[in-house]
Design brief:
By secondary structure, the protein is an all-beta fold. Helices cover 0% and strands 55% of the residues. Strands 2, 4, 5, 6, 9, 10 and 11 form a 7-stranded mixed β-sheet that branches.
Length: 119
């Protein structure tokens, strides 16, 4: 079991920046994925960005060029730098950890952190 603790959410004006961080503890494996999902009110949870243990990244089209995911393998942390934020980025952001054999959307989840972007 992996425990995830997120930090860094908050309120920001459109065009601003925020940085989310997530610290993982517990059974961390050498082949895995860490990532960020978000869920806006009335909408399904969606993938924002993911990074593999090998450093490969994948982003939702809506955040490409604005968000950057990074990972510190020695500290078991993953961060999401969010620039040029838009009101439509408003959501609860969840950190996710999954072993490589699990499909996307499964694994361990953090408690979520609110990001609100005002227009």
């Amino acid at each position: 079991q992996v425990q995830l603790v997120e930090s860094g959410g908050g309120l920001v004006q459109a065009g601003g920046s925020l940085r989310l961080s997530c610290a993982a503890s517990g059974m961390i494996f050498s082949t895995d994925f860490m990532g960020w999902y978000r869920q806006a009110p009335g909408k399904q949870r969606e993938l924002v960005a993911v990074i593999s243990s090998g450093g490969s990244t994948n982003y939702a089209d809506s955040v490409k060029g604005r968000f950057t995911i990074s990972r510190d393998y020695t500290k078991n942390t993953v961060s999401l730098q969010m620039n040029s934020l838009k009101p439509e980025d408003t959501a609860v952001y969840y950190c996710n950890y999954r072993r490589a054999f699990l499909p996307a959307g499964e694994g361990s989840w953090g408690q979520g952190t609110q990001v609100t972007v005002s227009s």
